[in-house]
Specification:
It contains 15 helices and 14 strands. By secondary structure, the chain is an alpha/beta fold. The chain has an 8-stranded mixed sheet with strand order 3-4-2-1-5-6-7-8, with helices on both faces.
Length: 436
């Protein structure tokens, strides 16, 4: 089978859960004997205005193609000029026809809509190429990808007037294009730059006009037209399915939990005999990830604890010595990181589509406590449904109970060690193939 993936790119140009999952899925498909290619949005080509395609050599991908001068890629930065993201004057139809003629894909697997020329979907439909979409986030439904607005509040429904205000302070189109230049992205990753903590305290956006609102309405309608061309949705959790269908109505698709190649069965016995409850947090400390809620819950209980924060690339202004910023853990140190936790807490406030850290911890025998907004709760419920909590007060009560009595953690750990491990990348690749 010939499979063309559209993603944000490969490491080190891009990183994060979407990039890792797409890369590992492609690798597994290639190992299974499929002909796998990747198309991704890149930076600007200063000598041309029209979109161009650049073909690259790659050790195992059949084709690796970058799109230059394509639509801006907002990532988590929002959209300040929505009209720039529906501008198809740059589109190079001849280049896209050559792409499809050369690769002749049976399937076009989308991992994002960012930077994707809508014409490519139209051409794929005309050639009866099956289009599958994996729901990594909510971009296209929400222009900030996670339904958390500029003020840190959850959006319950799409309102273009609110979208205009929420995105008023987003990056300009020029700045987005510069930030997505390969040399800038590599330098940012090399310097280990992250989102500064002042980003958590947003200024009040400037006012917007009715004209702005009309542009946002047109952009959201533009994405709705693109959704209509998807043949099958791969929902990576029931949470993601619920959000997509709330906004788009009933959709053809299947829920399949995601994984990556680094998640293998490495379960080891744990001892829960530390005098302090050793709590772990892995990921961004942005407000929508619930980090502050976790800190407040821990600080309100009257029993010994310590919180180790991993994966955060910025300095945190926290005076509590029980909270340690451990930085990004080195590749190969995951066994040590998760092995030194009594419990990993994933306290997301947004409707997180999955949460790969949940599987990473469980694969090492580490209990996980998740909010009912985390997509990976589907897996936690199979082990210990009481470790899916509802609201901040229940989080505080659970942490207090676990710190006072480790028997719940021991019982949870026994369930993890006894369950059948079923989240290998090769098995997942076979399941994804049923969508094709």
């Amino acid at each position: 089978m010939r499979i063309l993936h559209y993603s944000l790119g490969l490491s080190p140009y891009r990183r994060g859960g979407l990039t890792r999952y797409a890369t590992d899925l492609m690798h597994a498909q290639q190992e299974a004997g499929h002909e796998v290619s990747l198309l991704f949005p890149s930076g600007l080509s200063p000598l041309r205005r029209k979109m161009t395609m650049r073909w690259h050599r790659h050790p195992w991908l059949h084709h690796l193609i970058s799109l230059e001068n394509t639509l801006p890629v907002p990532l988590l930065h929002g959209v300040a000029t929505p009209q720039a993201l529906c501008d198809e004057s740059y589109t190079n139809e001849k280049a896209m026809l050559r792409l499809l003629d050369q690769i002749r894909p049976d399937v076009l697997h989308l991992h994002t809509l960012m930077g994707l020329p809508p014409t490519l979907l139209t051409m794929a439909h005309q050639r009866h190429i099956r289009i599958v979409y994996t729901t990594h986030d909510y971009y296209g439904l929400c222009l900030r990808t996670n339904f958390v607005d500029y003020w840190g509040k959850l959006c319950q429904q799409v309102d273009v007037d609110h979208c205009a205000g929420c995105n008023a302070k987003a990056m300009s189109t020029l700045r987005l294009r510069v930030c997505n230049q390969p040399i800038v992205m590599r330098m940012k990753n090399w310097l280990n730059l992250g989102m500064p903590e002042w980003f958590e305290q947003p200024a009040v956006p400037t006012g917007h006009t009715k004209h702005d609102t009309e542009h946002y309405e047109r952009l959201l309608a533009h994405y709705r037209c693109m959704w209509q061309q998807v043949d099958c949705f791969h929902f990576n959790s029931e949470v993601a399915r619920r959000v997509y269908e709330r906004h788009l109505g009933p959709l053809t698709g299947k829920m399949i939990s995601i994984t990556h190649r680094g998640i293998t069965d490495r379960r080891q016995p744990h001892a829960f005999d530390s005098t302090e409850l050793r709590v772990g947090f892995v990921g961004s400390v942005a407000p929508y990830k619930g980090f502050r809620v976790l800190c407040q819950a821990l600080q309100s209980i009257d029993v010994p604890w310590q919180l180790n924060v991993w994966g955060n690339r910025i300095k945190m202004n926290i005076s509590d010595e029980r909270i340690r910023n451990c930085g990004i853990f080195a590749a190969g140190s995951e066994d040590m990181v998760y092995g030194n936790m009594d419990v990993l807490v994933v306290p997301s406030l947004w409707d997180e589509t999955f949460g790969l850290v949940v599987l990473e911890a469980l694969s090492r025998g580490t209990p996980v406590l998740v909010s009912d907004r985390v997509g990976a709760q589907d897996i936690v419920r199979q082990c210990m449904p009481e470790f899916v909590y509802h609201g901040e007060e229940q989080l505080r009560c659970m942490l207090s109970t676990l710190a006072s009595d480790r028997n719940m953690l021991k019982h949870y750990h026994q369930h993890i060690m006894a369950m059948q491990w079923q989240w290998s990348m090769s098995a997942h690749s076979n399941e994804i193939e049923t969508l094709y």
